[in-house]
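DM from R.C. (forwarded with permission)

"hey, sorry to bug you on a friday — could you get me a structure for this? deadline for the figure draft is monday and I only need the backbone to look sensible"
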Amino acid sequence: MAEELDLNLLRVFDALLDTGSVKEAAVRLHLSAPATSRALSRLRRVMNDPILVRAGRGLVPTPFALRSAVTVKALLDTADRLRTEPAGSDPRSWRRTFSIRLNDGLVPVLAPRLTRRIADEAPEVRLRFVRQDSKDPDPLRDGSIDLDVMVAGPPPPDVHASTLFTDHFVAAVAADSELGRAPRLTLDDLCRLPHVSASRRGLARGPLDDALERIGRSRHVVAVVPTYAVGALMALEQDVICLVPRVTAAHLVERGVPLRHHEVPVDLPTADVELRWHRRVHDDPSSRWLRGCVREAIRPLTAIPSA
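My reply, with the result:
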């Protein structure tokens, strides 16, 4: 008779993938190393895959194991919720992990604010923030992530969406620079001073260049960085401009980073930042609670007037 895959084996799988070590997984699981090694052998038989293979002095996961890791975590989280999160219970009694995929511009903004709020309301809840490598809705469908915070087109029929706020780009500059002390950013200053371009894809050109080209102007990009947070910090240098989402600039200024942000003197597109979740959790109390926490965490920043 074929062996069955049970939750205990999935916990071993999860620990092995997280640690890459039979010995460290055994410590985490409060098992002996031989027992963990036997469980790995069972996993290999049941899953028909080596799971971990030797590479030098360590172990590395197989492609199958890497593909399966997120699904296994989602299954374990679901099982934990069945035991620890009865309907209508107090979030303070929950012991679980929520996974949230975040748009790059919101990582330095929403992650710390939401973490602080969750820690106050549900101290045993853990947040796992997932980088937005794609906008594929499948992680919402299979439970790999609980929420998506993103800028995107219309959602598929099985995914709910709610607009959190509408954002636009502003020019971040050092507060103690000449431009930081100026009452506004002029078109000449925008074109004269060097720019840092923040682009996950490594692009130096963006919507600003298209807008400037339409009026016969251009800018000079001196560096390209992977995130808006890095770009904003580079703008702390004298007379360097970086375009960042207004909510990102407002958060950094509120937290005491010596930046100033100016409205850009050309027309640029705005973006609706949406909160998305799958319809299977639409009426789930824990999902409703988490969605409310996200909205409350971001609301103070979206209410700050533009500089």
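R.C.: lifesaver. The CA atoms of residues 184 and 305 lie 15 Å apart.
me: no worries. The mean pLDDT is 89.
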